[in-house]
Amino acid sequence: MDIQILQEYLPLFGEAALLTIVLGTAGIAISVVIGLICSLVQYYRIPVARQIVRIYIEISRNTPLLIQLFFIYYGLPKVGIKTDPAICGIAGLAFLGGSYMAEAFRSGLDAVDKIHAESAKSLGLTGTQTFFYVILPQAVATSIPPFTANVIFLMKETSVFSAVSLMDLMFTAKDLIGLYYNTTESLFLLVVLYLIILLPISLFGTFLEHKLGNNSVRQSRKTTVKRQVSENARKEVVPDVGN
Questions:
Q1: Which structural domain, as residue segments, surrounds residue 222?
Q2: What does each C-alpha distance from 157 to 120, 168, 205, 243 come to in angstroms?
Q3: Is residue 155 a part of any domain in this protein?
Q4: How many domains does the chain have?
């Protein structure tokens, strides 16, 4: 491996990594919004919209991102909708990621015990307050592992952006290999930079999982203790002081 070639290629890969991060972050952010909306539609079983969401999820999850990018970049201009490569990449990643995020969030919402929502309502909380203060915190704790896995998966999927002429990491590596045949150096930088991008995401996700998981366990124990104390109090026999 030639160190001099690595030094020459590093600025090019640095620019490509920055583009990958920017486009990937934008696409993932939009996919989170889409996923949250779709998961709420499914959780609250909104008529018609629920069926539309199911169709979208099935289409999105069962077609490759590469095909979706081709459809957006080459197919939509046939009907008068033109996009540049960057917009195409973001839109494709958001379309694919929205379905995965929707399932992750839905599983988190479904994991919340319904008795918690019922207890909150019995205490006088409104539907909105119940969702934000009771359901959502527990759902977030449950959704962290699949959410992190989806973020890593989507960031890796940016490697197909090169198919629409975006100069991301994969495009740069293939371009340099084709021009100068320095395969070892190019692939080495490709692997290293993907690790630099993805490893912090994985570590941060693991940290959040343990942090929120421990908080959730402590809260669950407190709830169980309070419930047991309340039941014991109701069972106590009150002496008849009138006699």
A1: 3-231
A2: 41, 11, 18, 79
A3: yes
A4: 1
